[in-house]
Amino acid sequence: AxxxxxxxxxxxxxxxxxxxxxxxxxxxxGLSHKAFYxxxxxxxxxxxxxxxLVLCHGLLAPQRLxxxxxxxxxxxxxTRCGRGKPSLTRLRExxxxxxxxxxxxxxxxxxxxxxxxxxxxHLAFAGRPVLGDGKYCAQETYRRDGRWCTQNCLHRQxxxxxxxxxxxxxxxxxxxFGRLLQALRAKDAASAVLLRRVLATGAA
Length: 204
Known about the structure:
Layout: E1 14-15, E2 24-25, E3 29-30, H1 33-44, E4 49-57, E5 63-66, E6 88-99, E7 102-111, H2 118-125, H3 139-145, E8 154-161, E9 164-167, H4 177-183, E10 185-186, H5 189-201
Parallel strand pairs: 2-8
Antiparallel strand pairs: 1-3, 4-7, 4-8, 5-6, 6-7, 6-10, 8-9
């Protein structure tokens, strides 16, 4: 992502949220005190839409994933337990296919909540981790993923505010997410339709 020197934190300007490293996509940044707090309020009341393209291991159908996410410490991965924060991830569309014989799913994902690593944690909890995810994949799986990608196949493609929408196509450079989609062999006709749509525009 292109860099932006933030003003002192006490002035409350700057980025309102983050992207998991290493991922790609859009970010909101408040360039003034007023804009920062207006965006912060919209986030708090659920008026900001966030959509992602994700490539994960295995076949996964559109569904709601709800599992509380709890962080034990700053450096580890989250766990699911009773005292975790309620979290909702919506898998809106799915294209199923194969990469060199391995089943994968291209997902259009929307966030109901915005917990740290939420999509990655929920997909791992469902047994379908994101391709190239060194934190949530088994070590051997992550090593094999290195044949295809060098970072998470997770891209924030769209942000929505009331009266405003921004879309970012898959980056031409980077981990090779777009290149992997070109090599993906669709499993069925419906999957082929979604895959063609993403390949044509870089977004769903």
